[in-house]
Amino acid sequence: MKIVILDGYTANPGDLSWSELEALGDVTVYDRTKPEDTVARAADAEVVLTNKVVLGRKEIEQLPHLQYIGVLATGYNVVDIAAAHEHGITVTNVPAYSTESVAQMVFAHLLTVTNRTEHYALQNREGRWSGNPDFCYWDTSLTELAGKTMGIVGLGNIGRRVAQIALAFGMQVKALTSKSANQLPTGIQKSDLTELLSTADVLSLHCPLTEDTRHFVNTRTLTMMKPSAIVINTGRGPLVNDADVADALSASRIAAYCADVLTEEPPRADNPLLHQPNAFITPHIAWATREARLRLLTTAICNVRAFVEHHPQNVIQ
Q: pTM score, two decimals?
């Protein structure tokens, strides 16, 4: 069986092993694949693994040997599921592998804003504290999380974990979710949109990207928020209108924006968020801890093995 990995580098830049996958067939790993090279590289493969390389209808219809597509991620929007099903191709994903790491990144961003540890560490490498007349100093606001309100949009695996951590910090937690109030874990209050936005000190996005949630954060919703509010997006870039958030930051209509994802990745150099002093942007790395990537590869390989053994798992219907 010929197995092709179209973009293996981000999941495994060399610190993990493909050996268990190699035991299942003839494996070719490409670090990256340009769109124009996709069909040629996957031409003879029965199994293709992809993270961000698109396998749309056009590509699928040119791959007559293809039997299985394994997405090296939880989201599977890079695959035309309908076209795959029409051609008898099984598609799988890797659910919930990054829950702990993404939730951790939410609070890494939040604590960056509330405590500014990097700011002070950089200053003190340059001698600021050494030359200070007092035993301490601060030139930013410092904020305690206990008693503040965390608003969460979407209560899937990651949203629930973020809620648990927020509760451990002593925060009040409100959620915008399709779940009924009696389905929510203890400590989480179900809220409507207006209440959530108007009361949240921190708004964290964990909902799927759909036509209804695209640009969920925009000029209209931002005007409903406190000027002291912090918005965090570790979900999907297009949940947020980048230009609207940049304008809100410039006008001090919100205090800070933290994101691990942007609408376009990598972003254009002129993305207005990249030049806002109160925008804190990381390069889509919340999922990329070694522990999470190991879970990703382990499950992805198990998915392939299960398919080969005729009992596929984590199948996208």
A: 0.94
